[in-house]
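Example record

One chain of 205 residues, shown exactly as stored in the release files.
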Amino acid sequence: MAGTGVTGRRTADRAKAAAGLMVGWVALLWVLEAIDVASGHALDAYGVIPREVSELPDIVPSAFMHFGFGHVAANSVPLLVFGFLAALGGIRRFLAVSLMIVVVDGLGVWLVSPGNTNTAGASGLIFGLFGYLVIRGFVDRKLVEVGVGLLIGAVWGSSILLGLSPANTGVSWQGHLFGLIAGIAAAFVFRRRRTPAVVYGGAVG
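Predicted structure tokens for this chain:
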């Protein structure tokens, strides 16, 4: 019973940390958009314009910038949900996964997006976290995480597929695609290492 109590407290602490991190993350996106509007959209310059070397430093900041409050609102709920579920597995692991997704996604946008476009927003990270959560349970061989991934796939799968379509104008399907690929790759790169079981040999009489 004592062990169960300790486990319960640890789970509750992880949930609080994950929730606090994601609420703060989403709040930051809204604050940045408010600053962007107040400054006459000066922060839009931190989006990624393809194949310009000077744009490479904007790959990470672009994941925090948006083009209007409607853009932020559309990304807030899925980012909050996916981020919370991913962060339950550990904050450091989640931050490493998120950084990988943002960097790979940003580089993909920089390489293949149409010229004279400016791409920004958290949707690449959202698609990446979706892919990560759907695959993670199978990679880590954890039944609960498999169930979470299947549930997320059932609820958001159709929206994700729509976001990958080149016919869906006005959004960066390239950013969505590279984000999804990066998230799936991150599930393998940051998979949990299994500790080999210790087997004691019996005495031979």
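Notes: The chain has six helices and no strands.
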